[in-house]
Design brief:
It is a single chain. The chain has 202 residues and is mostly beta strands. The protein folds into two domains: 72 residues, SH3 type barrels (Roll); 84 residues, SH3 Domains (SH3 type barrels, Roll). It contains one helix and 18 strands. The protein has a five-stranded antiparallel sheet, with no helix packed on it. Strands 17-16-15-12-18 form a five-stranded antiparallel sheet, with no helix packed on it. Strands 1-14-13 form a three-stranded mixed sheet, with no helix packed on it. A hairpin with a 2-residue loop joins β8 and β9. The chain is elongated, with a radius of gyration of 18 Å.
Length: 202
C-alpha cells in the first residue's frame, strides 16, 4: 500500500472528530460474570463456538441472508458474548453506535460477529442494524472530492471515526462523515463491499 498521511492543503478543513477516551476505537472489557457457562458437551449451540475465523466461500444462513455479511451496531452499549445466549459470559462491551461488524454465523436470534480487529463473539440480532457503515483505520486519512488519488481534499479524518457507506466503485468507496461527503480508498476503511474483505478476518 502506497497511501501515506497527506500534507494538508490550506483549503482542506481538518475534521477531527473528537471521541471520548473511553470509547475511542478500543473495546472496553466487561466485568467477569459469576455464573459459569454450561457444559459445551451438553449444549449444541455452544459446540458451534467459536466459528472458524476465516470463511472460504459465501453461504446462506438460517435467516435466509448471506454469510458472511456486514452490519452495524444499533446501540452505544452492546455486549459481545462467548456463546449464543444471555447465559454466556460477556467478552467485551462495544461502546460505539454504528460500528461496522461482520456477521459470520447465526443461531436462532443470535449472530456470531467479527470486528475490525478479528475478535469474534455473539450478539443478539436486535443489537444489529443492516445500515452499512465504515470505520477509518490505522492512520489519519484524506477524504477526497473524487475517487482519484490526485483529487482535492474535503477533510482530514482521524482513525476510529465511523461514517456511512454510500457505495463503492473499484478501489474507492463514497462515504459520509458528520456532514462531509467524499471518497476513501478501500484499504483506508473497514466495512466495505469487497468480497475479499468479507473472508479475510482482518
Amino acid at each position: 500500500m502506497t497511501a501515506r498521511t497527506p500534507v494538508p492543503h490550506p483549503c482542506v478543513r481538518r475534521l477531527r472528530l473528537v471521541l471520548l477516551a473511553a470509547i475511542a476505537l478500543t473495546l472496553a472489557p466487561a466485568a467477569p460474570l459469576r455464573a459459569q457457562p454450561p457444559d459445551p458437551a451438553s449444549d449444541p449451540a455452544a459446540s458451534r463456538t467459536p466459528v472458524q475465523s476465516r470463511l472460504q466461500t459465501p453461504r446462506i444462513g438460517p435467516s435466509g441472508q448471506p454469510l458472511p455479511r456486514y452490519a452495524s451496531l444499533r446501540a452505544s452499549k452492546v455486549n459481545l458474548r462467548t456463546g449464543p445466549g444471555v447465559r454466556y459470559p460477556i467478552k467485551w462491551v462495544y461502546q460505539r453506535t454504528g460500528l461496522p461488524v461482520e456477521v459470520i454465523d447465526e443461531f436462532e436470534t443470535w449472530r456470531n460477529i467479527r470486528d475490525w480487529e478479528g475478535a469474534t463473539g455473539w450478539i443478539h440480532q436486535s443489537m444489529l442494524s443492516p445500515t452499512r457503515m465504515i470505520l477509518v483505520v490505522e492512520r489519519q486519512r484524506l477524504l477526497r472530492r473524487k475517487p482519484d488519488p490526485q483529487a482535492g481534499g474535503v477533510a482530514l479524518v482521524e482513525p476510529g471515526v465511523v461514517g456511512r457507506l454510500r457505495g463503492c466503485d473499484g478501489a474507492w468507496c463514497r462515504v459520509e462523515i458528520k456532514g462531509f461527503s467524499g471518497w476513501l480508498r478501500r484499504d483506508e476503511i473497514y466495512g466495505d463491499d469487497d468480497p475479499a474483505r468479507l473472508t479475510s478476518g482482518r
